[in-house]
Design goal:
With 208 residues, the protein is α/β, with parallel strands linked by helices. The chain is built from 7 helices and 9 strands; from the N terminus they run βαβαβαβαβαββαββα. Strand 1, helix 1 and strand 2 form a beta-alpha-beta unit. Helix 1 packs across helix 6. The longest helix is centred in the last third of the chain and has 24 residues. It is globular, with a radius of gyration of 17 Å. The model has no long low-confidence stretch (mean pLDDT 96). The structure holds 5-O-phosphono-beta-D-ribofuranosylamine (GRF).
Amino acid sequence: MKKRIAVFASGFGSNLQALIDYSRSNELNGEIVLVFSNKKDAYALKRAKKSKIKAVFMDPLKYESREQYDSKIIELLVKERIDLVVLAGYMYLLGKEFVRKFKNKILNIHPALLPSFKGVHGIQDAYSYGVKITGVTVHFVDESLDSGPIILQAPCYIYSNESVAKLEEKIHQVEHKIYPKAVKYFCEDRLIIKGRKVKIIDKKRSRV
Ligand code: GRF
């Protein structure tokens, strides 16, 4: 059965768009049925509406605590029978309860090669540090920041005299290639987590 996917995004939503485009032109065994945001004016919500996907905004400021906010979101996800939560530039930390409830069912994309350059400025931090290679990481979400088991990584070279804006553009291009791939693997039940390691099994074996 096709997995029901919710994408969480707070901003521009270029990764959301890459996922929508991929899901419409490739075999995915999944369908994006919900886009959720903590930001009313997130462009990601517009992208969802354009693609006729249910778009939901909930204002965190209207809830007394993060726990209350999270439990409202969980209610929504249960109602929508969501199998997979894909964080795509979602800039609001998920609470422990949420992560526990959807254990091994939440993916995130980070614009650096984890465990280096965790946090919200991954691209700039790698650039300022002077590394010659940075990249992109797709990982499962656990209860700590940018720390869950790694599914896929891809490198991105930083050439001398390259601007941080150029690097950002390159990083996004890589993101748009590898995130749909990781989602596809999840939807085909091909990701086996053993401790910190994620094994990607081949398609035939998963169907046996
Ligand atoms: C991406 O760089 C992603 O790695 C990070 O947030 C950014 C979101 O970009 N987590 P977009 O909204 O998908 O364009």
